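Protein modeling request. Please complete all fields; requests missing the sequence field cannot be processed.
Requester role: graduate student
Desired output: 3D structure, token encoding
Chains: 1
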Amino acid sequence: MKWSLFTLLLTSFSINLTAQVDMVWDDYGLGFTLPRGLSITENDGDTFSAESDDLYLTILPIADRTITEDDLADAVVAMATEMEYDELTDADDLELNDLYGYYVEGEKDGARAFVIAMMDSQSATNFLAVIVFSPGRREQAMRLARSFYAYE
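Delivered output (152 residues):
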């Protein structure tokens, strides 16, 4: 009985270890971790997109050295409003490795989304990202949002 429980726990741990894919967007020095099962739908140097049935990610780079940390909160609220998201329910800093990020959470037509702005203080590269998710995938979407990092 003890051996079966140990095997089950080990198998569960192994499945969790393989449940994500590390990605790097070399053109912009951005890394992140995609949940396994997302298919890359666009990666043309101007846009990165990946999706599954209940989770969607798109990232757009913006080169602008004048953007500051104070600008990010205004940018995500303006972007979420322009995209007509209702109920902006959550807004906060994102604690990211080597990036400063800010996000808001909104809802539109029954789908939830994180609208994110990130800046790399070591370069002129900034990023806008949107993660759309079904209600049951919120935690996985937040793990994706927190996985962004800058590298050289």
